[in-house]
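Entry 0007
Protein: Nuclear receptor domain-containing protein
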Amino acid sequence: MPLKRPLSTSSPLLSTHPTESSLCRVCDDSARIINYGTLSCQSCKTFFRRNGFHPKNIRLCLLNGSCEIDINTRRNCTACRFAKCLLMGMSPDLIRKEVQERKKHLQTRDTHTNQVIAVQQLKLTTPLPTLDLLYDDRSPLNNSEWTLLSNVTHAHDTFSAIPQIRHAIYHLSASLSSSLDTSYNVTDVFETITLMYTSMQSFISSSSDFRILTINEQSSLYQRNLHGIVALCSILFLQATQIIDNPICVKTFSIIYGSEMMIQAIRMCKKLDTDVIIIKLMLLILAFSSNCFIINQQEDTQNDSFLNGTYRLLGSQNVYVQLLWKYMTYRYGYYHAARRFFRLIEIVLDLIKYSGAVYTYNDTHHGLVDNILGQAKQSLIVDYDKQKPLWGKP
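Output (structure tokens):
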């Protein structure tokens, strides 16, 4: 994609006479003036002037340059918005020409105003803060943070059981469509729940933050957080595998968990953020919480390594919280990032409440997940000295 466009001999540098009311060629907002070669709104003019001098600093599009740019999405992707500005005829050379003409005008002023001229020249070469501080003050992710984000995504996808579950649902649907007497029985449900737990166990244990803990601390972390993590993971799985769209699967899950609980699960599936990167980061945030399981199990607290030392988790958790917030503001801007974050917290709190209720009142689920958790703790001892790749990478 070329970053320069030849100057148009027919387009004025900056028209001072309003033209007939029309739309911005870049984002379809109201526009009345030709800026840098194209009819554009004030927002796109400011955006292009801010980025036109240093196009190499613009971060690449996360969606391979396929973002649609309009009045509602123009702040989502800097790369695609800048590319559309160029495509519509805006030229960085016209920015330079404008700056040069302004400097020339300043140099003609009276010598008694030299101090004022110097200040104005400094302002011309230093980007001014805009009134939209919540948008322009956001911090971009640095290279190490992009690497960490990539590692988290890779690890989750490596250990995810979504492909296995989706494959099973596909064959179930195919069998039913062939009029075979096939049903999704409770054994399949137990297998699905087990896959969720083992995939999350592998995902968490592949992180360096988990590896530096002692076996007792790792066991305590599983005890406190694994059920809450799987609660969020289960909604992602239900959404991604289309289980909630399969009446046989929903009916079978309802046999174990009840129709009311399945109704709540379907409701949260529909509310869950569609950006799976946000969910993957939130799973790690929950993993390094002090406690995201609200059940008092009356166990020997003397063996709980984090009872008086939860501060040890804060450093790890804070890294992932900052990474989540930076990614969300980079992708969606402050306003929409805040709305998505609040909605995510609401879902997580509901899930922790419902998972506690199911664990307390559903003996079948209680016995199943206790057995899985016991095996997970035992595997910590067996596998402690084994060399395992971080983040699931070979």
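Curator remark: The beta strands are 22-23, 30-31, 33-35, 38-40. The CA atoms of residues 36 and 94 lie 5 Å apart.
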